[in-house]
Amino acid sequence: MIENSFNRRAFLKVLGWGGATVALSGCGNTSVEDGKEFVTSYVQTADYIIPSIGTYFNSTCAQCDAGCGIMGRVREGRVLKLEGNPKSSINNGKMCGLGQAGVQAHYNPDRIREPLLRNGDKGEAITWEKALGLINEKVGGVGAENIAFLTGGVSGHVKVLLKNYLDALGSGHHYVYEAVAPSIMRAANKRAYGVEMPRLRLDKAKVILSFGADFLGSWISPVHFSQQYARFRKADNGERGVLVQVESKMTLTGANADRWLAIRPGTEGILALGLINALAAAGLSVPGDVAAVVKEYTTDRVSKDTGVSVEHIGKLAALLKGRSPSLIIAGSAAEGYAHGSQNAAAIALLNQVLGNVGKTVEGSFSMPFPQMTPSAGSRQALQVLNDNMLQDKVKVLFSYGANPVFTAPASMKLKESLKKVPFKVAFAHYMDETAVEADLVLPLNSALEDWGTVMPEYIAEGAQLNIRQPLMEKLHPGTLGMGDMLLALLKQRRPDEYKGYEDFYSYLRNAMVSNKGALGGANADDDTFWEAALSHGMVKLAGSPVNISSHISANGLVVPAPFVEDSAYPLHLIPAVSASLRDGRNANEPWLQESPDPLTTIVWDSWVEMHPKTAAKLGIVEGDIVEVASKSGSIKAQVYVFTGIHPDVISVPLGYGHEAMGRYAKGVGVNAFKILDPVFDKETGELAMHETRVKVSKAGQRVIIVKDEGPAGGNQMGRKIAVRMSSDKVNLSKEV
Amino acid sequence: MYCFLRLSVLLVGLIFSASSYAANAVQPLTTADDLGPKVEQPIEFPHDRHAGDAAKGGMQINCMYCHTYARRSIVAGIPPLQKCIGCHQSIESVRETPRIKKLFEYWEAKKAVPWKKVHDLPDFVRFNHERHIQRFVFAQNKPVQEACGYCHGDVKTMTVARRQKPLSMGWCVSCHQKDHPVDATSTKTTHGPNDCWQCHK
What is the ipTM, given to two decimal places? Predict the structure, then answer.
């Protein structure tokens, strides 16, 4: 019998020898490439370029709009890794995971490599000459009022060229669209403080009360706020700041808070007014008209409306009264309602009453060169464009830096509106949902191979113009920078004015050098100034301070009563903005897909976050596939049961569910933008992102959720590794 | 039965090994006399003319004049084209020879010369030129050509360089086991590092 004479041991022994022979000859030295591989050699190099040793060049991150300074490590002509630029006052040498993934945007295999012209369902590669000629022909064939330019947030010299191009065409239709933008906050701040983006001094505050502002994760300028937060937690005088986060769905910032309070969605303004009332009762001096407005917000009523217990409201008021200065922040979670502006106004009023204005809420700096300041994007811009397209007012549409087909709610029917536009041009990195709809797709350089300037919207100190410069040669010869394309288009319209500039680089250098006086280089010669700007990756500007108004008024402030229950759609949907995927523009970078969500540890998929009580009521367990249906549509995703959410709320992260874009983004998860109801903020007209009501039903299947979370969080096998305690057992007064 | 089975498994292994060897190695990596493969370069660079002895018509140029990165980096590197041109633009006598004409063609087109690697190690080996040059040339005052020659052979007698030594692990270790003086004046000796991670990291 075989079993007896040729046993397992003998078999393995012989197999081992055989395998070893194969290994020795087959793969032994095959990585040696004598005479096959090329040596890196240069035509000309600087002395500091040494093979195998990295050289660092400064530039500006393009992964989100915060505008952090970056340094790219470049070796043998290739950028390998990004670090933060220590000279940048925004990030001071630090960097986030989203920024780190910037190299994957650059080396991405799905980048478009040549201009594509629609031919039926397919894109046909054409030359740049033909592409630009075609644009010239199309814009020449229609009236100026029928040309529209849709962009994401733009600033710096590209913005200048864009404006000049639109002027040259005679069209003023520039729509600045940002899917996840703090536009309600800008308006509310403007009204309360007189500036759109006051500087927040987290580091000076002793208490921070944040109404759903995820300033450590995805809000405005997270890397900057994280550093201020560190100083807030470990102040020079040794006094540890206390963070209280009030929100309906726990964010990364909420997870870091000393006290996380789940609030009924939309009642943030009521709590703010209730706190003013409680503070007034505790002896804080409150102006008469404010006191009159808030006096009906008794603690009992506020507790009933918001779901925050009387005890916690009392503790919060005592904390705010006892520790000054404090800082109250209104985030997108408080502002995403039809009464979002009122919520923001009520929260700003709390800041004013506490006397924080001028202490932890400071004025900003006005930027010199207003033509380069960032254009504030809004969701309303897309709404207006959509209406114009429906009325056949748009004949030629340019799209740059925005992916509206992906981010617009289904109720807008944007895809159908786009069909009414005869000629659509998309400037794109990937064949994303908008580029797929376009007639002409123009491939952009990646941010690591492009020239440009960026003026960040939120700057901690002074004003600053960031430089974006190539860290390496272009990967694909067929791509062009946005500046280069605009310059080429301008040459068609205003040849006399622009023919002197060979490319965008020469335009940029000339524009910077001829204004060097205002850019802090008055005493330097042209080359020295320019080299210094490139070497630092930025130019510090002398902005003039804009004072903040401290006028307290409750005039016209009405915060509506909490929602009435909707029995058909009993749950509120919170579309969560995650730290890595944001609005989904970076979804094709696999590092971001595979880095676990900080709270749920889920990777490579969407999920529906649900409170255990709600899940129990619906008979749902983790991994159940559910259908989330709103009045505007439905999506299916796996359920993750999580205590960090209000029982009336479910949450689905944004940025997933691409139908195009590339191999890493396409088909991963579901798109929560699509089912948002068309409800708008009453004052600004912005889409109220948190207003969507949904119902949840089991779809039948159950899956195992792919996540990093192991038994340490749940089952610790009797070992008390991480001791868990429910939040109402924590004694805040003892903690502080 | 047992023997047949054992034999058959071994045979399959051998056939595999033979066929994969044949498929992968067109040219043997190391010949009997330890020479590497002949590498065809875009320009047949005459090392003998540049570095050879004056008596034999060489210019006796220091290896590190061109391979300037060897003392600063883990790789010796190839000089940038500007270095070749830097001298050759003022050497009229050879300006019209085919190789130099080709060199200037690359220069005028601003294209790097696509030199091929002659000495390559597997990716799991990390050899550091800088350490060896600092040790032998700068600490022990060994002549440069001797120090480079430990691994690269007598390059000054070659035109296009060809690998002279096996560059195998056993060959590296055979030298690392020897005692070398610590520096030029000391009588103290030590051998090269023999930790695995010195090279395999």
Answer: 0.76
